[in-house]
Amino acid sequence: MTTDKTSTPPPADAPVVNPEAAQAAVTAVDPRLLVREQGLGGYVTEFKRKIRAGDLGSIPVVIGLILICVIFQSMNSNFLTAGNLSNISVTMVATGMMAVGIIFVLLLGEIDLSVGAVSGVSGAIIAVLSVTHGMNEWLSIVVALVSGAAIGALHGFFFAKIGAPAFAVTLAGLLFWQGFMLQLLGDSGTINLDSDSMVAKLTTYYFTDVAAAYGLAAVAVIGFFLSAFFDSRRREAAGIPSRPLADIIMRTVVLAVGAFAAAVMFNQYKGLPLALLLFVVVLVASDFVLRRTTYGRKIFALGGSVEASRRAGINVTAIRVSVFAIAGTFAAVGGLFWASKIAAANQSAGTGDLLMNVIAAAVIGGTSLFGGRGRTWNALLGVMVIVSIQYGLALEGIRTPVVYMITGGVLLATVVIDSITRKTQKTAGRA
Questions:
Q1: pLDDT of residue 409
Q2: According to the model, what pLDDT value does residue 46 have?
């Protein structure tokens, strides 16, 4: 005798056994959608909930920037002048470019200690090829960037394929490439660049036409609005929570105020710096890669859980190698800007506090040391904090040792906040 264990689905017109539970299941709504339907009050409630859950975002660094401006302006009225702010914006680009590459590595929960030395190698390669050997400058720049990518990929190979710790691999790279740079520069130790060369103009060229700064501000504002608007429409068509039009307009207005205020400031000095324009382009492009592409999602997935990513079919080795190659490329780009800043390649390139400032910029800006959380825009916020502190203390004639101590204290405070935030999120079930 056999028993039929298959079950027959109930007919479509079958009566509901528990109508109260069924009604509750139907009316359940995504809480994020409720927040947006409640208007301003809903956002205030959601903001308080995020604070309690440890989801601070960029709030600490924004508050820090405001305090820095207030304190140093009260100490010296020259701090917020157009000339000083323009100089800050140019100086921060070299470190900021390198911080963008470090953010990719930090998202994996790893570290790259070689970026300072790689930046020095980049500057030395360009100087040797274009000045000493007379190679076309554009070709020498390409060689330097490709070399940075290859060096980073090599580090990634030893880490991802061989299994050596990234800390040890990149520490060895720091020492090796520092020596390689000294070997390239030779006995003189310094190779001066032509002041009219493309590399030299990276930090000395300004778009003097006022339309350039205002045009960039307008493009940024319009681009942000269109991106947010069409993203909201796509989410709405898919039936998932989306930002209301009033929210998008409010954010656009805030961005417009900041962007056009910066444009006014630049036009009061020399105009829009080429260095800053290139930095903004890099930030937009890299942010798009991380947030809008499959490759970027794989990086975040690896930072969350390597084993889960592997089981999901992600090529862990390839992603890791490529991320270190990206870090090496941005280190080389930073080396170009440092060479431009001093119009030379010398033995001190990539040394001193550069590595510390690069990592600090990424972490202070909001990128987590534990992996899986961060954006490339964090590089902009973090490097603004560091360079602003340096310029503010320089205006007061404060010595370099004190600058080191203050910057180290800011970095420690940021790491502590990051650790506390992570623990709070775990307690709230959000990490």
A1: 82
A2: 63
pLDDT in tens, 190-208: 888 888 888 989 999 999 9
Q: Where are the alpha helices (DSSP H) in 202-243?
A: 210-237
- Residue 38 in any domain: the answer is no
6-41, pLDDT tens digit by residue? 445 555 555 555 555 545 444 444 444 445 545 555
Which tens digit of pLDDT belongs to each residue from 120-179? 999 999 999 998 888 999 999 999 999 999 999 999 999 999 999 999 999 999 999 999
320-369 pLDDT per residue, tens: 999 999 999 999 999 999 999 988 888 888 787 888 889 988 988 888 88
Mean pLDDT of the region 88-106: 94
Question: Could you tell me if residue 178 is inside a domain?
Answer: yes
Cβ 192 vs Cβ 131: under 8 Å = yes
Residue 375 domain boundaries: 58-208+270-427
CB–CB of 349/181 below 8 Å?
yes
Long-range (24+ apart) CB contacts under 8 A made by 61-67 are 61/364, 61/365, 61/366, 61/381, 61/382, 61/385, 61/414, 62/381, 64/364, 64/385, 64/410, 65/381, 65/384, 65/385, 65/388
Q: How many domains does the chain have?
A: 1
Task: Report the DSSP beta bridge partners of residue 273.
Answer: 206
What's the CATH number where 97 sits?
A: 1.10.3470
Sign of CA dihedral 212, 267, 397, 413: negative
Letter for the amino acid at 304?
Answer: G
Residue 367 CA to residue 295 CA, distance in Å, equals 18
- Residue 421, Cβ neighbours under 10 Å: how many? 21
CA atoms of 253 and 211, how far apart (whole Å): 20
